[in-house]
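FIELD: query
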Amino acid sequence: MQVTKDWWRGAVIYQIYPRSFMDTNGDGVGDLPGIAERLDHVASLGVDAIWISPFFKSPMADFGYDIADQRDIDPLFGTLDDFDRLLEKAHRLGLKVMIDQVFSHTSDQHPWFQESRRSRDNPKADWYVWADPKEDGTPPNNWMSIFGGVAWRWEPRRGQYYLHNFLSSQPDLNFHNPEVRQATLDYVKFWLDRGVDGFRLDSINFCFNDAQLRDNPPKPASERVGRGFSPDNPYAFQYHWYNNTRPENIGFLEELRALIDRYPGVVTLGEISSEDSLATTAEYTSGRRLHMGYSFELLVDDFSARYIRDTVSRLEAVMTEGWPCWAVSNHDVRRALDRWGGPSAPPQLARMLVALVCSLRGSVCLYQGEELGLPEADVPFEALRDPYGIAFWPNFKGRDGCRTPMPWTAGEHGGFTTGQPWLPVPAAHRALNVEAQQADAGSTLCAVRAFLSWRRREPALVQGGIRFLDTPEPVLAFLREHAGERLLVAFNLSAADADVALGDIDARAVDLPGFDLGTLADGRLRLPAYGVFYGRPGAARE
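FIELD: result
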């Protein structure tokens, strides 16, 4: 596959959650051959790359984010040969392939941890974060796990606690140990040599913890607003100054980048969740560190024009060197269609959301099913598989509602499997299946395909700068410009018509099939419910 430098700038990256994409062997769980089988669908969308969530050997306590072998495929998903065939087909279709890497922790079934936990004097004794108890037997500090409860678990074989920022079966590696850092770079090189085009780096700011294990300070109730966790989670009760986002992370990112730079065209995308995720994203993408970063800042409940404008503007102000990446849905949060439109949200909102996130400056991660306008699935408690959701039920239903299988047909289980799917496929999803939408020129799928095809040909949207207009709610409007080409872009974020004054701004509308389009005349922009407007200042109507 031809290497194109900086292909990732403005790229649309399609996220695949392998458990739920396509099952080829009837065990109810998606697999790598299933991804390969459905790659033609992905390529037809007009995206640039795929990001595959973890498929490595794992006991699946956290569904692949608890890795027991970073160099091997879990038999549930297939084999290394299956991955190689997937990679080859993707490249043949013009798709780059990015894979997940989880640096900060492993599974407790990983051979490294199995050895480390045996004693205090074995070769890997210092590969994980171990600490003695306080005099009264309690954990060494007050750190909390994001998945609930204290972040320390007692290991009687060593007479010490080990750190786990996530599940207790996900012990944290000790990145202060240079052997751990080198072992991490070694398995990254394994996948680089195999031909991958990039890495999505899970919880990248969690690699290092404070070496002194200082207590995190308490956070007032008025500030307990998290990203990726709810205010009633004890994790929200602290400022996370010491268990993540430590200064030592910077040096490791530069080591990683030095390795990556030996492979032309390979890109790194960091997932960042810190006390100030936007500032951390800017820091981690400056210099020779990460190429891109994304945070949970648009994966929230706030769907106001002001919030989106302020969030993007804040990042623009501090990110002077790096490149942003935006997402409004992924495998960890309630789907945006429900989150921002409620259970009866119309397809117009689904289409508008794709257009909106793909029109911000930066690259984009589109989550599987967004092209179909899938709503959040209502998974009953007895069918839940996510340990996070089970622990916090009923206040938080977990992440299963966004992880249900892709509906390919209207048939049983949506054509995802011939067996019993690991999560149910709701009737509402089966009605929105790929086969039916492909045959309907007025579908969300067809609208998204047409939009992404058009976007690819618009340098202002792919590479251009962004300048927001001061419009009242519920209208979000901005200008994109690149090499003298300009686009006026506007969205109505409400279920009611909107009418706003734009002053002396004039633009000729671009016709986008499948969208509810607004009009601009005499300085007034009129947008239908969840309507969009794209216009070229001073150009003839398209």
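FIELD: remark
The two ends are 35 Å apart (CA to CA).
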